[in-house]
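job 3f2a | input accepted
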Amino acid sequence: MTYSLSYDEHEGIARAIILQGKTVRDCFFDRAMRPQQTGAIYQGIVDRILNGKGAFVKIPELEQGYLSDAEGLTSGQKIYVQVKNEARENKAVSLTKNVTLPGVFVVHQPLGVGVHLSRRLADMGEETGHLTKALTGKPGGWVIRSSAIRATRQELEQEITELMQAGQQLFNCTKLPAPTVFEQAMLSAAGSAAGNPLQVIIEKHLDLEHITPYVRMARPSLLANIRLTPTLHAFEQNDLDGFYEGLCQPIVNLPRGGNIKFERTDTMNVIDVNGGERTHFFEINRDAAQLVMNQIKWRNLGGIIIIDFLKMKRSDDRDAIADILDAAAQQDATTCDVFGFTRLGLCEISRARRGYSLSELLN
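job 3f2a | predicted structure (363 res):
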C-alpha cells in the first residue's frame, strides 16, 4: 500500500503526518520558528566536573548542558556531544557522548564501536546475519533498525556509505543540525515505503531545502526518491486537520461508545478509560488499548504513564490487555516498556522522553 507524507506549518506548529493509504501511521510535531534541539550535535568544552561522575559542558548558541557520564574527561577538554533532551523543569539540557546519526535502515555512531541490533529487530527473530556482515569492519558503531529487513543490498550499502561520510564531516565542524520534523517523518516513512518513491504533499510556500538540512548532509540520495506535490492546503486531504485537532483535545471517543481522557500532572501522564453506557468492561478495555498506545506515540507522551482501565476481575483479561499494550510498544521507535497492572488495577508504562509532547508545544 502507498505511503505518503503530508507537511505544513499551522499556527506556529510544524506538522508532519505519515499515511499508509488513508490510515495514519505516525506523526511528528514541533515549533516552526524555534525547533527543538534534541538530536543536534555540538562541539563543546567541559566546564565543570561533579564528583567525577557528571559534568557541565559549555556549548555555543545553546544553554549550558549536563552530561551524566564524565568518565575520562577533564575540565577545558573539547568534546562532541549530542542533545539527548531539552531543558525542562529547571533542569539543564541533557547531553550524551553517544553521538548518533540516524538513517532509514541503520543508525551510525561515529565515536562508537561494534554492530548491534535494535530491540524490535532482535525480538522479531528474523535472520540478520547478512545485515551484520554488511557492517562488519566498518568504522564506528552501528545499530541495525528493523526496517533494514526490507532494504535491498544496494539501498543498505548506499546508506552506510553516506552515513560514514557524514560521520567524517562531524570532525570538520562544530555543529550538525538535529533532524527537523519533516526529516524525522521522511526517515520513518522511507523505511516503510520499501524502495517505492515516497509521496510528499507540502504547502506551496514552504522551502524544501530549508526543512531538510540534516538529510542533505547525511542522506542526500533520499531526496531523489520523493515525489513532491506542492499544494495550498496539505492537510485538506483525508481530513488531517480534523485528526490533528483531535490530538489537541484531552478526550478521545471510542468507536463503539465510551472515551479516553488524557491528563498531564507535574510528575506523570494519567489516562482514564470511561465506558459510558457500555457494560462489558473487557471489550471496552480491548477497544481502548490499541488506541491508547497510538495516542501516546502520536502525542509524544514520555516519562511515567498510568492507565486507569475499567476494572477487570479475571487475571486472564488483564494479561490479554497487557499483551495488546506490549505488542504496540514494540512497534514504537521510542523506547516504551509496559510493566503490567498494579494491585489497584492501574497499568504502568514508561516511555523515554524525546523532546516535548504536543501539549507542551501548544502551551
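job 3f2a | The radius of gyration is 21 Å.
job 3f2a | closed
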